[in-house]
């Protein structure tokens, strides 16, 4: 069992959010839905091996970018697909960050970014950082070009 589970508080769109998230991520499913009459009170869904808990808790709280979900992507195709789906009806931001239509913040980050920025040559990592700072959606080729001074 997962020891720590993200708990996502929605005003009244928890079921819609679960359905959206499982449509975005390939290996995902709704695990449970607890209803009170016709209204969804809470539920759980999985993305890959990660479980998320949702609650329709009312308008008392809303999401903030201080907490985001970091998605490690292996290919530009994966970055593009997740960026486009999650940012649709949402809000695109800098350096791979976006807010989805529910206000939840995501970071769509290619794994190569960490490798390039972690290079022991500080000039190479600086060039990669500067290239990334100019991007909204992260473009792997542009990071690699900056790393290789192209």
Q: How would you describe this protein?
A:
The protein is elongated. It has helices at residues 14-24, 76-87, 111-117, 122-133, 140-147, and strands spanning 7-10, 28-36, 39-47, 50-56, 68-73, 91-92, 97-99, 105-110. The protein is 33% helix and 31% strand. A four-stranded mixed beta sheet has the order 1-4-3-2, with helices on one face. 24% of the residues are buried. It starts with 6 loop residues before the first strand and ends with a helix. Strand 2 and strand 3 form a beta hairpin. Helix 4 runs antiparallel to helix 5 (140-147). The protein has two domains: 1-61, 2,3-Dihydroxybiphenyl 1,2-Dioxygenase, domain 1; 63-150, Roll (2,3-Dihydroxybiphenyl 1,2-Dioxygenase, domain 1), CATH 3.10.180. The protein is of the alpha/beta class and 150 residues long. It contains five helices and eight strands. The mean pLDDT is 97.
Furnish the topology, listing elements before pairings.
Blueprint: E1 7-10, H1 14-24, E2 28-36, E3 39-47, E4 50-56, E5 68-73, H2 76-87, E6 91-92, E7 97-99, E8 105-110, H3 111-117, H4 122-133, H5 140-147
Parallel strand pairs: 1-4, 5-8
Antiparallel strand pairs: 2-3, 3-4, 6-7, 7-8
Could you give me the name of the CATH homologous superfamily of the largest domain? Answer: 2,3-Dihydroxybiphenyl 1,2-Dioxygenase, domain 1
Q: What is the CA-atom radius of gyration, in angstroms? A: 18 Å
How many structural domains in the coordinates?
Answer: 2
Mean pLDDT equals 97
Strand content: 25-35%
Query: How many helices?
Result: 5
Number of strands: 8
Low-confidence stretches: none
Fraction in helix:
25-40%
What's the CATH topology label of the largest domain? 2,3-Dihydroxybiphenyl 1,2-Dioxygenase, domain 1
The CA-CA distance between the termini, in Å, is 47 Å
Q: Which class best fits the helix and strand makeup?
A: alpha/beta
What strand order characterises the main sheet? 1-4-3-2
Principal-axes shape call? elongated
């Amino acid at each position: 069992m997962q020891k720590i589970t993200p708990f996502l508080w929605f005003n009244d769109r928890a079921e819609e959010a679960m359905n959206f998230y499982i449509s975005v991520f390939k290996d995902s499913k709704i695990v449970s839905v607890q209803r009170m009459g016709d209204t969804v009170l809470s539920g759980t869904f999985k993305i890959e091996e990660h479980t998320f808990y949702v609650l329709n808790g009312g308008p008392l709280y809303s999401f903030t970018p201080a907490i985001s979900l970091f998605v490690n992507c292996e290919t530009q195709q994966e970055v593009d697909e997740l960026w486009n789906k999650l940012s649709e009806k949402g809000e695109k931001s800098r350096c791979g960050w976006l807010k989805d239509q529910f206000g939840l913040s995501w970071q769509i980050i290619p794994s190569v970014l960490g490798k390039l920025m972690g290079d022991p040559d500080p000039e190479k990592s600086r060039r990669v950082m500067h290239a990334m700072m100019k991007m909204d959606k992260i473009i792997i080729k542009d990071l690699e070009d900056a790393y290789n001074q192209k």
